[in-house]
Amino acid sequence: MSTETKSMKSIWYFVGLMLLSIGGLIFLAGIYLLLSGTEMSTVLANLHPNIWWGGIMIIVGVIFLLTNKYVNQK
Fold first, then answer.
1. Has this prediction a pTM greater than 0.90?
2. Domain segments of the chain: what residues?
């Protein structure tokens, strides 16, 4: 018989998944807008905030997933 125990996932695991997926979509939309040459009429459009924030969300999502993985191993 197997003595395998299943542990519940922390809420931060799912927060990491959501940040990773939504950040990926925002980042890809920013890359698309950058490459398509679409003119944006916002004040800071030349800084491409969707690329920056998408990248930040991806990084934070990966950090949440990795820390949750290592915390649950103990």
1. no
2. 11-38+45-73
